[in-house]
Amino acid sequence: MCRKAFPLLFLMLLTCSESRAQRIMFWNVENLFDCQHDTLKDDKDFLPEGSYHWTRGRYWKKLDDLSRTIAAIAGDDAWPMIVGLCEVENDTCLRDLTRRSPLRRARYAYVHEEGPDVRGIDAAMLYDSTQFQLLGHEAIRIPSAEHNYRPTRDILHAWGTCSSVPDTLHIVVVHLPSRASNGKKGEKHRELAVETLCDLLDSLTGKHVLLMGDFNAEPTDKIFRSINQRMTSLIPQDKKELRRAQGTYYFRKTWGYLDHIFVSTSLLPLVEKSVTIGKFTHLLNEEGVPKRTFQGPVYKGGISDHLPIWVDLLSK
Q: Does domain 20-313 have CATH number 3.60.10.10?
């Protein structure tokens, strides 16, 4: 297991229990699989003998690198209060990340429900219980099978209290169906997922809601029309600004925003008005784009093909 020196900020935060800054981040962590076969999931590629040759050494390196990055995103005096994740295989990965990697010093708790995705990847959430008091959570199933689509990831909904918000804060983490190589069928599947998401958002009308995730869609995509009627995006919306911005994902020599954070009208006065993108040097390759863990089946040694994003709640 790699135990290289972590940033000074990481060391300063190891014993931090009191918090003032309250930061909420999201990150697609690109195929965080353990090295054990789940007989109910199609995870054979991510085994030591699989096509990706996913070894324990590579797995633990990835956990250490994730820890390093979450520490770099920490505020001046506190860990991120909430860490939304997607492409996490199971509870084992979350337990190893929060209990056995260097991140164990943060003493994160986590929320996760096993979903129906064929490969086994799910949305999950870490939370700092000194800042956020969890009251409950649920997994919202997207009715993919009923419409003859391949099962996709559940929507994760968690709620609790924190010092920056005067009432219950609802966190929703999504990973919508992929747009890759699925054409109109993939688009229809994403529309179905958005319908399910909007039903949840309608049930939370008037409440403080923060929605984050990998939507597999750019800000100008039509699937956001119904979401934008209910929530306010903290991602740039102007086309000129989008062209200037770096984005969170790089594909076919083009930057784009697949990862988004939205807030409800009631929460808007309580948060910064735009997200920050984690453009850390250790997340980028020599060309200045995200250094992936894999390019196809070829191991590249990076952390993720997406960059993390975050937003701060305003201090009272």
A: yes
